[in-house]
Amino acid sequence: MSDFYKKILENNKKWVETSLARDPNYFADLAKGQTPPLLWIGCSDSRVPANEIVGAKPGEVFVHRNIANMVVHSDMNMLSVLDYAVNVLKVKHVLVCGHYGCGGIKAAMGNDSIGIIDNWIRHIKDVYRLHNIYLNSIEDETERFNTFVELNVKEQVFDLAKTSIVQAAWRSGQDLTLHGWVYGLNSGFVTDLDVNISSEKDLDEVYQLKF
Questions:
Q1: What is the pLDDT of residue 1?
Q2: Would you name the residues annotated as active-site residues?
Q3: Which of 96, 123, 143, 146 is the most buried (most CB within 10 A)?
Q4: Global pTM?
Q5: Where are the domains of the chain?
């Protein structure tokens, strides 16, 4: 076995020992079930750990991750996670969290072929197309990149709000609010993009305000 593989096995043992030292019932309590208040839809980037960013413990955040934190209406993986979170776990918050310096967003700004991921990046390019006049008016490349990251998160929140799962939850009176954040890799802080939506009425009002 490689040294890295041995290390992560050893780290697991140390983590278990440390957790049990703090609370002998730690894992027994976790095994009883989960009631997380939050579903996190984030990027697969290894530098964006959902629980750590918000200081949450195991059991407090239900997580779905993919390249560039996309909400694609035909993605059965994402929809299955969303359905379970909303209709079974009854989460009260769904958060789409992107991050500055996102490789998927950067790739969507160019025309290079990377491989099979090109098919996924097509969805991100669609977001650029929606806002191409505004984005192309930004001369500074870094500023354009950061703005695209933010616009992509907003669009994913709006797409999330349009899913039948979220729509049905709102119509039944379920307490459910959607949010959009961007995480700063170089600072650790998140930026709330102020797209907090908790009803169909909110969706219309926020969309008009932000675009």
A1: 74
A2: 43, 45, 47, 99, 102
A3: 96
A4: 0.93
A5: 1-32, 34-207
